[in-house]
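Reopening closed ticket. The problem is back. First fold of the pair:
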Amino acid sequence: MKRCSHACGSAEHLTSRRQFLGTVAAGVGAASGLGTFVRPLVADELTRQERQVLVVWLAGGASQLETWDPKPGTDTGGPFRSIETSVPGTRISELMPLTAKQMHRIALVRGLNTKENDHGKGHYMMHTGRPQMPGVVYPHLGSIAAKYVTPETSPLPGYIHITPGGGGLSSADAAFLGPKYGALHLGNGQPPANTVRPASLNDLGASAREAVFQHANDRFAKRRRTAETEAYTSTFEQAKQLMARREVFDVTKEPERDFDRYGRHDFGRHCLLARRLLDAGVTFVQVTHSNYDTHNENFDFHLEQVGEFDQGFATLLEDLGASGRLQHTLVIVMSEFGRTPKINPWYGRDHWGNAWSIALAGVGITAGNVVGKTNANGTAVVDREVGAGHLFHTYMKALGLDTKESVDVNGQDFFLADPSATHIPELLA
């Protein structure tokens, strides 16, 4: 994991944002209060269409000026130029020459204003489409995809996060959808822990142990069946399926030449693993590239960091396009916010949620389109301003989900998407 010594020093960069569940008890406890849910009728159709999602999360807040919305020659532009892309008239930073060749597959949102400059709140907003509020927690897009898009019979988790941090299971992202739809985190892209049977246990012994467990579980469930016991059983069954499919997580089985194509760095390896997981049928894969929180030496750091992103992401997008998988995979590149147009005294850029950019590609998206515009030096949105809620509606629409769907939790309705926002029609094919 690469560490940025000039980050802001907030709690989000001193500790992990997520506390992973280390015991079954923690997972069971998270299931308490689970109500009844209404599954959208469209989900069965989505299953047949095999829709998937790839999120590339640029942790810390990547600079829009050094990526999707460069302003060369201005007082905020910095030292880098803009370059032509495969879409005439659309220019991006010279730090992304490979991505520039893939721009005909990409749509840009350049008018994003989230009004949020806090890491944790920005992270929550961009994953849920809502501002963080006390008293209620909404599910992340990955958990919604895991519940409503993943086939019930899938042997693999619906939501997998490849992260430079630690690995494990987490129910936090699923909120009221329940721990079954939380994320499986692959720390540094490594396979899930404890998914190899001990060498001392042979097939006969494993079968006998399973029979004893099943008998005890059935006996207990007859008298004390609850949402918590159901969550425990589901977790155990998923663990067995993971053990049977462990080779899916072994990126070393990919051709050696692909490691050169994607880049012999962690992000390149993680992108290659993401391709492998999508090919295996995982519904939602998130890859985190970290850390873009460049309050000092923004340009030197983006030179290196965006170079890694450019190689891994452009190669992955090209492969998804060549294989046909991009036709039913929604691709999202985002951060918790952008960076300030104003360059600070330490040649850095600070947190900026007022005028920044994200990129989209794949199923349901109008490729090559650019929505929104900032002014000459990038300090304000001057055309087609949108927020995180609009993006979230757009993601759900691209996946074919009903953005007006509500979920009943103990008698109270919760909308999966913020009802005060709508989708962005210019982005949708």
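Second fold of the pair, where the issue appears:
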Amino acid sequence: MSDDSNTISSDGLRYKARVSGSPFGQTGNNSTMSCARCGVHKPRALGVYRKLAGKNMFVCGDCAAPKPTA
């Protein structure tokens, strides 16, 4: 059985049928963001904004170093 769903046809289309929408589901409220360090999409509540390259960018909690306690 050949899988011709991922071949480019003569009219230039790659897929005959494809599910529409975002791979992140039906969330329209920007509840996830891409981490500036690792690139993985994480919920905004699990990250912080850090100044990287002169701009405030989202960094997930796994990549963000904890602030030193005084």
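Update: turned out to be a display glitch only; the data is intact. Residues 27-70 form one domain. The mean pLDDT is 76. Please close again.
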